[in-house]
């Protein structure tokens, strides 16, 4: 799909959905910069798997909510690779509490990482040279549009993220940059272990999903890779929902 030789940055790429995206891009011989912040060992393992697939890997430790870290991260990419064609904003964090228990610290922490970080990431991405079109894909979740217990802070941040995607798409389409989002249904990753009602969420999702199974990280990665290809050349500012049909039910 004409992805061979392109260069990508995937934030939060050491585990879960980010890992699946990084490896899926590497399957198409895309070189992948793996951003991580806390979990170096799994990030190193992802790097080895990328190289085993015949692509280059670049390991970068950075907090995407810290502008100095972001600036240093893109400086490393420029130094090692010279440029970048694909940015996948996947790194996420947040506080899972009832709205009545949230503090402003909780809200700022969640919003800074999940939504606001996209803007400086894109700004630095635009400054790097590229070979042809640039693509930005942000990873969202159904909590952006649906009420989920204890998900107020994260859901609000994902809604803000999807809004930013639409505005960035309008601003950048004329400059040869495509910006979209992929919204995932319930995925059983390490992040879900922090939900106090994890088992209930998984069982409810299995029962209600028309496709008959839970979404996997690979399902999400497949959609991200598609948005990076020429087949998605006229998709701008959209949020592609990957949930097996869960969200179409009343």
UniProtKB/TrEMBL annotation:
<keyword id="KW-0276">Fatty acid metabolism</keyword>
<dbReference type="InterPro" id="IPR014358">
    <property type="entry name" value="Enoyl-ACP_Rdtase_NADH"/>
</dbReference>
<dbReference type="InterPro" id="IPR036291">
    <property type="entry name" value="NAD(P)-bd_dom_sf"/>
</dbReference>
<feature type="binding site">
    <location>
        <begin position="187"/>
        <end position="191"/>
    </location>
    <ligand>
        <name>NAD(+)</name>
    </ligand>
</feature>
<keyword id="KW-0275">Fatty acid biosynthesis</keyword>
<dbReference type="InterPro" id="IPR002347">
    <property type="entry name" value="SDR_fam"/>
</dbReference>
<keyword id="KW-0520">NAD</keyword>
<dbReference type="Pfam" id="PF13561">
    <property type="entry name" value="adh_short_C2"/>
</dbReference>
<comment type="pathway">
    <text>Lipid metabolism.</text>
</comment>
<dbReference type="GO" id="GO:0004318">
    <property type="term" value="F:enoyl-[acyl-carrier-protein] reductase (NADH) activity"/>
</dbReference>
<feature type="binding site">
    <location>
        <position position="12"/>
    </location>
    <ligand>
        <name>NAD(+)</name>
    </ligand>
</feature>
<keyword id="KW-0444">Lipid biosynthesis</keyword>
<comment type="similarity">
    <text>Belongs to the short-chain dehydrogenases/reductases (SDR) family. FabI subfamily.</text>
</comment>
<keyword id="KW-0560">Oxidoreductase</keyword>
<feature type="binding site">
    <location>
        <position position="158"/>
    </location>
    <ligand>
        <name>NAD(+)</name>
    </ligand>
</feature>
<protein>
    <recommendedName>
        <fullName>Enoyl-[acyl-carrier-protein] reductase [NADH]</fullName>
        <ecNumber>1.3.1.9</ecNumber>
    </recommendedName>
</protein>
<dbReference type="GO" id="GO:0006633">
    <property type="term" value="P:fatty acid biosynthetic process"/>
</dbReference>
<keyword id="KW-0443">Lipid metabolism</keyword>
